[in-house]
Write a structure and sequence with these properties.
Blueprint: H1 5-18, H2 38-42, H3 67-71, H4 89-99, H5 102-114, H6 131-137, H7 141-147
Helix pairs in contact: 4-5, 5-7
Length: 148
């Protein structure tokens, strides 16, 4: 928390007047403190009912684990995905991961914070990045996302 929260709030408001938020998907004005417009926010593919092991969407049945995970369970015991890997989320992830678009990473972090909690999830833990990938990308996107 900033030492002077009122000053930080005022400075942030002034910056928003000079540099208004723009939608990272379509370029329209941002909405609700996000770099995302109202229409793009409404069209996000939020994850609904999903397999507890792999987070793939499930039909509205009593199953909590999909058939694939029952037959061949993955190494992790649980997975939670706030959003589905569909447009525009897939494009935002590619921009963040491979094009060093930190604004896309900040937006993804904000969206994950807004996701309806299905249960108490453990914190995000970045997977170690190979040194070659770190040199190629110039930053560790997983660690940066956890920091945001």
């Amino acid at each position: 928390m900033p030492a002077f929260p009122r000053a930080a709030h005022t400075l942030q408001a002034m910056l928003r007047l000079l540099l208004p938020l723009r939608c990272l998907v379509c370029g329209d004005p941002g909405h609700d403190g996000l770099d995302l417009c109202r229409a793009c926010l409404a069209g996000l593919p939020w994850s609904g009912r999903a397999c507890l092991r792999c987070a793939l969407p499930l039909p509205d049945t009593a199953l909590i684990v999909c058939g694939s995970c029952r037959e061949e369970p993955p190494p992790q015991t649980a997975t939670h995905a706030s959003l589905l890997y569909l447009p525009p989320v897939d494009q935002l992830l590619v921009r963040y991961k491979f094009h060093q678009d930190l604004a896309a990473g900040r937006l993804l972090a904000q969206l994950m914070q807004r996701a309806p909690p299905l249960w108490l999830c453990p914190p995000l833990v970045p997977v170690p990045l190979h040194s070659r990938r770190l040199r190629q990308r110039g930053y560790n996107q997983a660690a940066e996302l956890c920091r945001l």
